[in-house]
Amino acid sequence: MTDDTDPTDWTDPETFRAALDRAETREKGNYFEAFAEGDRIEHEPGIRLSRAGNERWMAQTLNHDPAFWRTDAAAERGYDEPPIHPDYLLAATMGPSVEDLSEKGGYFLGRTDVRYRTDAVYPGTELRVDSTVIETKASGSRPEYGIVTWETTGRDAETGDALVSYRRTNMIPRRDPDESVETDGGQTAGEQPDTDADPRLPDELLTPDGECFEDFRTALDDAEGRDAAVAYRHERGRTIDDALLAGLPLATLNTAKQHHDAAAMADSPSGESVVYGDVTRSIALAHARSDERTFRELGYDDERFHDFVTAGDTIYGFTRVLGASETPTIDVPSGVDATDTAGEVRFQHVAFNQNEEPVYSGTRTALIEMRD
Ligand SMILES: CC(C)(COP(=O)(O)OP(=O)(O)OC[C@H]1O[C@@H](n2cnc3c(N)ncnc32)[C@H](O)[C@@H]1OP(=O)(O)O)[C@@H](O)C(=O)NCCC(=O)NCCSC(=O)C[C@](C)(O)C(=O)O
After folding, report:
1. pLDDT tens digits for 349-359?
2. How much is the ipTM here?
3. Ligand 1 center–CA 284 separation, angstroms
4. CA of 305 to the centre of ligand 1 (A)
C-alpha cells in the first residue's frame, strides 16, 4: 500500500508501536569492524568558525582572557584581531569527526599529541577535518567493544593548511560481540585510577607568587632539593547546566548521543547524559589560565577522562607545575615569536568534581608571559 488510499492509521499509538517494532532503523555512525589501520577518512561535515560560536564557547567555559575578546588586548598579544580560542578550535575539529568515528557510542578514553600548527586562526575560517586510523585493538576488559586510535587534523578549507592535529582513543562497540561474554556495555564509570603508585605526597605544596613565567620558574627553583612540589588549586567552579551539556557539543556538530539523547542514556550506567570531554577540560583549563598570563597555547598530552560528569556536577581545577624553560621544548606554531616575551611552562591539570574526584587529567605546554 503506497498511496493515499491506505486505510491504516499509522499514527494510532498501538499501530505505530507495532510499526516501530517491525521497522529497520537506519543507523548512524560506525562499529569497530569498520575501522582498519591506515584508513583515511575525510569527514563530510565542516564548520565555519564564527565569532559568535567562539564567544559562546569561551563565555560558558570561563575562558575570559581579554586577548580573545578585545581588539586592543589582541593587538598587544600580537594578533590582528581577537582570534579563535584554541579550545574552541580543538572542539570544532573534534565535532565534525564524531559522526564517522564515535557516534555509535563508547567513551572518549583519551587524547595526546595535540599540537597547534599555525599561530592565529580568525573568525570566518572554514574547517575541513580528516582522520587516519592509527590503531585498532580488542578491549580485554569489555569484549563487546574495541579500542580505536585515530589521528585527526583540522584544516583551513581554503588553503588545506593544518591548523591543529591530535591523536584520540575511544572505545567503540562491535557489531558482532561475543554474546556469551558478560560485559557492562563498556559504559561504566571507572574506579578512580591509581595515578600514583606511591600515594605519599611531598611535604610541601608550593604556590607561585605571581602569574608570570618568572614566578613559575622561581617556584620550581624553590622546590628543587626539597621534598616539595609546585601544586595548587583554583577557586572558581562551574556547575554543569543545559548550556554546557547539549548546547556546546551540538554547536560544534558533535553528534555523540551521550550529550543530547537523554532517553538513550537513561539505559546506560550513567543513567543520564554525560558532558562532552572537551567541555570539562576547557573549564578546568580556564580556571588555570585565570591564574597565569598565558601568551600562547602550544599543546596537550596524556589527556584522560577518568569518570562521568553529569548535569549538576561542578568542575574545579587543580594544577601542578612540571617545568619551565626559556627555550620551548616542543614545536612553536609558525608565526609565533616569543623571544624575550614569554617562556615555556609545562603543567599537569586535573579537573575534579564537587566530591573532589578527578574527572580529567592531562599535561599542557604553554608560553607564559615574562615580566615587562
Ligand atoms: C573510560 C572508562 C569507561 C574506563 O573505565 P575503567 O577505569 O574501568 O577502565 P580502564 O581499565 O582504565 O580502561 C578500559 C580499557 O581502555 C583502555 N584505555 C583507557 N584509557 C586509554 C587511553 N587513553 N588510550 C588507550 N587505551 C585506553 C585500557 O587500556 C583498558 O583496555 P582493556 O579493555 O583492554 O583492559 C571510565 O574511566 C569512564 O567512564 N570515564 C569517563 C569517560 C567519559 O565520560 N569521557 C568523556 C565524555 S564522552 C565524550 O565526550 C564522547 C565524544 C568525545 O563526544 C565522542 O567520542 O564522540
Report:
1. 999 999 999 99
2. 0.95
3. 19
4. 7
| Cβ(306) – ligand 1 distance below 6 Å | yes
Say how many Å lie between the CA of residue 304 and the centre of ligand 1. Answer: 8
Question: Which residues, other chains included, contact 196 with Cβ-Cβ below 8 Å and sequence gap of 6+?
Answer: none
- Does the C-beta of 277 come closer than 6 Å to ligand 1? yes
At residue 351, what is the residue type? A
**Residue to substitute in 111, 112, 141, 280 for testing ligand 1 pocket (most ligand atoms within 8 angstroms of CB):** 141
* Residue with cell string 584554541: 86
CA distances from 79 to 82, 116, 123, 281, 295 (A): 7, 15, 12, 25, 11
Rounded to two decimals, the pTM is: 0.93
Q: Is 265 in the pocket of ligand 1 (CB under 6 A)?
A: no
Question: What is the mean pLDDT of the segment spanning 212-219?
Answer: 98
Question: Residue whose CA is closest, atom 38 of ligand 1?
Answer: 189
Q: Which of 109, 114, 86, 91 is nearest to 301 (CA)?
A: 114
Q: From ligand 1's centre to the CA of 104, what distance in Å?
A: 15
Decide which of 3.30.390.10, 3.10.129.10, 3.40.50.300, 3.30.1360.120 is the CATH code for 32-194+201-369: 3.10.129.10
What residues does each domain of the chain span?
32-194+201-369
User: For a substitution probing ligand 1, which of 109, 139, 275, 280 has the most ligand atoms within 8 Å of its CB?
Assistant: 109
